[in-house]
Amino acid sequence: MSALKNIKVLDLTRVLSGPFCTAMLADMGAEVIKVEHPLGGDGAREPSAAVNGESLYFMSLNRGKKGITLNLKEARGLEILKSLIKKSDVIVENFRPGVMAKLGLSYPEVKEINPGIIYASISGFGQDSPMKHLPAFDLVAQAMGGIMSVNGQKGAPPTRVGVSLGDTSTAMYTAFAIVTALLNREKTGQGQSIDVSMVDSIFSLLEMSLFSYLGDDKKVLDRMGSRHPTSYPYDVFEARDGYFTIATFDNTGFSRLCEAMGRSELMEDERFLTDTIRGKNDTALKEIIHTWSKKLTVDQVLEILEQARVPSSPIYNIQQIAESEHIKARQMLVDVEHPVAGPTRLPAMPVKFSQTKASIQGPSPLLGEHTKEVLKNELGFDDEFISTLAENKII
Amino acid sequence: MSALKNIKVLDLTRVLSGPFCTAMLADMGAEVIKVEHPLGGDGAREPSAAVNGESLYFMSLNRGKKGITLNLKEARGLEILKSLIKKSDVIVENFRPGVMAKLGLSYPEVKEINPGIIYASISGFGQDSPMKHLPAFDLVAQAMGGIMSVNGQKGAPPTRVGVSLGDTSTAMYTAFAIVTALLNREKTGQGQSIDVSMVDSIFSLLEMSLFSYLGDDKKVLDRMGSRHPTSYPYDVFEARDGYFTIATFDNTGFSRLCEAMGRSELMEDERFLTDTIRGKNDTALKEIIHTWSKKLTVDQVLEILEQARVPSSPIYNIQQIAESEHIKARQMLVDVEHPVAGPTRLPAMPVKFSQTKASIQGPSPLLGEHTKEVLKNELGFDDEFISTLAENKII
């Protein structure tokens, strides 16, 4: 049984933020109809990483959705979209603010067509920000949201988080908001609009860095590599053949570490007496740890630290985590059969429900794969009319 | 009107992942009852950043919740918890896997008490991973989830994302899952359990880095600073007095940039003919841009680039984004009156609903602030009995 069975989502989104959000809904069983321009469709179809020439980016973010083409610059295309809106529970868009209004598809207009609809908008800065005209790229959202100022090594330039967190965090908030609005509609019958911005989403994740500034000290934190703002040793360290982490917060962990290194005298060293004092003498302590760890391999270090019960871990690259026992046991990579790419591994949604299991409902659609089916089943169009639409490049 | 009105959430979580999740539910109007140990409570009460000695971390992550104390190691404490479970819709916990079962509070046991309950567990690796014994610190989840291998400057060590994304991404997924399960329960009457892990959540955010590995080329991406995997110039650059971004993907943006720099001849340069070719000659192009930009201030650079319509942005530090016109307009910082700290600014949830507005329902609770109220109203205990419980250190 699917949690979102019978929920129809009209998906006008492209690339990352919107598709990531509607993929979460599709995995929970919603019927997501992705609307693309007949010429080329979603830019994410352009393959950077590919299986058999098919874009993995697109296949992953659009798994389990139906795909139709519609030219929204043509009056008849717009009319068809409006007819589909009448039959939908949710509409999601990630155009620049103002584009939907230009199409005659602002929330008040869509609400006229379907009063109960849930209308979700994703954008760089939100629908009403004084900065809403600025470009909504992930790099810009991360740069202006503050996160880059605290990401990266000490002394290095501000660094973009190595994944498009501006997009994906916004997607997660929007999925949460849509389901919340559906629950509310179930109880009250009311629809509503939802407005989520990438900069706000990034800002909401700042936690300690923001609290430090909002606190009495008004401290503006800078980049500090991998270390904890106050505690030590909670950081990345080097072994002979790579890196590993130690994550201790207290004297118990630290004394175990000292013994594991054969350096119990450090527990008496006044530079290392408490967590906070160690935090201030991080450079000295890191050097001491390196004197020990650089003679050993990562595997040797981790074996010693595990035996000594010092919280520590390897640092996996993408292949190591993807092929790990953990990812296998959690079924976080799923084989999906795609008509062109063939069997393709895609990442699953990281939520394990006991009843309404999340699961990938099928491959991503080919461009326009379901246009006929949707126009017939949802709107009752016949073959001849559909052919005319195709000839006129409406679909 | 609140979307989650009348939803009762029993919150056994501490520090970050769980509290971040239940704060989202509280902002949507759920009644969240946070259960803490009578001695000291949630470790996050220990102030690192503080207002009037009160931990901002705790105040922010536990705003709008009720707080009760209960000693779960005492039989009577456990009995009281079970009585509260009977009256709850949702229970959320972030103990190490196995702890709830030791307390006699595994999902099957809790389901006996309340068949309709939604039981959400947050952990480092999940309830059934072969690695579930490993420490569930954010640093470890980021290290093993793969994200650190692609975060940071080229040649630098793998770098922890400068915020606790292992915790907060898991929180967002869990909040999504809980509301989805509530919607399902509304339709079917069924409760269920939810299991979300920090490593899985980080893994789900890898997108391009993971797709590159899953694709035909099996490319294991490394750290590449702020730049885009293929396109250029999409990166961080230096001006005389700081950093800024340029975010172009195409020849239109690039030719505008060349003209803005007074270097239109670069458009004919064979090293820079297309986006992908530029991506391969990033070092040369960065140097050319720096020759121009390092003579100017960030403000001057951005004024020129804005006029030339080249996508670009400043890079805000925490103070700059917190005090920006954008954050003001979006009401992303909200004044909350706290009985000890006084008026305190807290970050709001980044979703703007037209109907069921998210809003901070009140300050975080003092330790045990609502114990009496909850035991009286929910369980009908009288003053005398409550005093006995306090004397016996059950509450």
Explain what this protein looks like in three dimensions.
- 2 copies of one chain form a homodimer.
- Chain A folds into 2 domains: about 10-205 and about 330-390, Crotonobetainyl-coa:carnitine coa-transferase, domain 1 (Rossmann fold); about 235-320, 2-Layer Sandwich (formyl-coa transferase, domain 3).
- Helix content of chain A is about 40%, strand content about 15%.
- The first copy, chain A, is built from 17 helices and 14 strands.
- Chain A has helices spanning about 15-25, 55-60, 75-85, 100, 105-115, 140-145, 165-190, 200-205, 210-215, 250-260, 275-280, 280-295, 300-305, 320, 325-330, 370-380, 385-390, and strands spanning about 10, 30-35, 50, 55, 65-70, 90-95, 120-125, 190-195, 235-240, 240-245, 310-315, 335-340, 340-345, 350-355.
- Chain A has a 6-stranded parallel beta sheet, with helices on both faces. A 3-stranded antiparallel beta sheet of chain A has the order 9-10-11, with helices on one face.
- In chain A, strand 3 and strand 4 form a beta hairpin.
- In chain A, helix 1 packs across helix 7 (about 165-190).
- The first copy, chain A, is elongated and about 85 Å long.
- The model of chain A has no long low-confidence stretch (mean pLDDT about 95).
Defining traits:
6-stranded parallel beta sheet; Rossmann fold; 395 residues; alpha/beta; homodimer; 3-stranded antiparallel beta sheet; elongated; 2 domains; formyl-coa transferase, domain 3
